[in-house]
Amino acid sequence: MFRRRHTVALALLAALALACDGAAADPAPTGRPKPSPGLPSSMAALGDSVTAGFGSCAVFVACSRNSWSTGGSDDVDSHYRRLREANPEIKGRARNFAFPGARAADLPAQARSAVDAKAQYVTVLIGANDACADDVASMTPVRTFRGHVDKALSILRRGLPKARVLVVSIPDLHRLWRLGHDEPAAVRAWNRGVCPSMLANPASTAAADDERRDRVAERIDAYDDQLARACEAYGGHCRWDGGAVHGVRFSLDLVNKGDYFHPNVKGQNRLADVTYPGRFTW
């Protein structure tokens, strides 16, 4: 959920990222694995830097091998790894199209990539960057946000009519501020420009700053409401997480100590735990 202007500088570390990245971190499947009826044999992840695993590796860039969704690292019990244990056919068939800075406007293009990949299971986590604008006035309007989400889901419905789609709620950024606003290391990190609409002037409890944070929290709640409604409108093959991610009572030990914003490995595991569907019967 890192802001767009940071992604240019992060690109300088891209070569190093290869050492800690690798999507599913599995070779392409060989032979003919045993089929597992009822479980998806391919998957794709759509979203922003959280799903891209940003900040979860030794190098401070996207690290999709630690993604809660498609990660293949032994350190994260991702959806992909859980599925692979039950269905070997999915091995090497997990694609992560999420990237740092992505907003709802980027979701349709990611959905097209999922269609091209013929994914049978698609996870969607989007919206934090739409709220993490330079200021409250610059946040994506709710109606615009819903339009982008509807477009992306329509692409998935047309291109992957039998695929299961999991839509995940947005993490509670207001709770993050409450946890860290009196933590000096977090304040220093946030003062470098992390999610300014919520985290600017992090140590301030002035009425104007509290009101600003409340408005960002309300916008995130509105986005979550629209995500739930969009999934309901999609039909039977879409499942909403019921606000599970937003409701996680996390602590600062679930975020990395570089930006005090993105989940670390422990945080990625927590996301996987609260979102994994278990049975793919929808």
In order across it, which strands form the biggest sheet? 2-1-3-4-5
Give the distance, in angstroms, between the N- and C-terminal Cα atoms.
29 Å
Assembly category: single chain
Determine the number of helices (DSSP H or I, runs of at least 4 residues): 11
Strands, count? 5
> Low-confidence runs (pLDDT<50, min 5 residues)?
1-20
The residue fraction in helices comes out at 25-40%
In sequence order, what are the helices and strands, one letter per element?
HHEHEHEHHEHHHHEH
Radius of gyration: 18 Å
Q: Give the integer mean of the pLDDT values.
A: 90
Q: What proportion of the residues form beta strands (DSSP E)? A: 5-15%
Task: Give a short account of the largest sheet.
Answer: 5 strands, parallel
Pairing-aware structural class of the strands and helices?
alpha/beta
Form type: globular
